[in-house]
């Protein structure tokens, strides 16, 4: 049976740092990729390094043979060829290597983007911190602590929470609300924390129920009754639906909305979800994804079908393999190019990590270099620049659109 994953185009609820990126006029990926790609430069780095990028800066983290030291190197990729900006030693890699606002987290240390050491990371927790925009927080033993990249060495707040802490929920897109005036993250089924102040919202739900974020609030469902909450947790609408399957199909995937919406519009609005639940209205959606749970990708078939303006695309790679590791997508402004990404809008980095790209006109994959090659990392640096990384032999390759 095929289930339709609801993809909605909400223009509300994005980080200030991301608002320009996600505005309807701002292009994320160029339509010129539909004409193919050509190589513009290559750069050899240490094999098996980790690579991230933000804006015109690209970072490599080389753990080498040492268990105590990693080598962090920055490159400026704004010109026709990359140039090395700086390099410094940091601590051993501890699985957290990312941009946090204007701060770099690497090797258990905080650094400026110019390579100056700020301090060791301020958190001590059995789990890595949750990074949401310029905020970071950890929870352990019933106590949650928050920080801001604006003043990363000082605690922003500390608060106690009741019940258990759900780490997976805290960093999943469907459980984070981002608005003009506040940013909240769910830490368990019915408790959200204001990441600026540490104040909590208790939705006071029955056991076994949970809330999900919307672009303009929250939603929960019990049987056939749906409740919409304001951003600060006040109920603002209650309505019934008569089609339980529609509720299951929408709220089931809604738990995984981090895996399903347009990257440009990470959460549906209350109005959009209500229209779908009460009327089945999906009109005006730029993209829909159909998932056929009777099809196994391990049987050389693809369970995903992407529909863009009535054009159906099976997200297969150039070698025929099925790209189904994510179902969050970006579209070119003219909707001629669609790309699959596993990046999350919750992070402040401007770089998107791609799984694949396709021309909407005929559904053909857009290849980078050798049509049969699978790159370890594919980074959309800006609308017209993609950098791939192959861990072995350790090569970065930049591509521009056009054959």
Describe this structure in words.
- It is globular, with a radius of gyration of 22 Å.
- The strands form seven sheets. Strands 2-31-30-29-28-27-26 form a seven-stranded antiparallel beta sheet, with no helix packed on it. Strands 1-23-24-25 form a four-stranded antiparallel beta sheet. Strands 3-4-5-6 form a four-stranded antiparallel beta sheet, with no helix packed on it.
- The protein is 8% helix and 39% strand.
- The protein has 403 residues and is mostly beta strands.
- β19 (212-214) and β20 form a beta hairpin.
- The longest helix has 11 residues, at 244-254.
The biggest beta sheet reads: 7 strands, antiparallel
Sheet with the most strands: spatial strand order:
2-31-30-29-28-27-26
H/I helix tally: 4
Structural class: mainly beta
Percent helix range: under 10%
**What's the mean pLDDT score?**
83
User: Roughly what fraction of the amino acids lie in strands?
Assistant: 35-45%
* Total beta-strand segments: 31
End-to-end CA span: 40 Å
Shape estimate: globular
What does the oligomeric state look like here? single chain
Summary tags:
403 residues, mainly beta, 4 helices
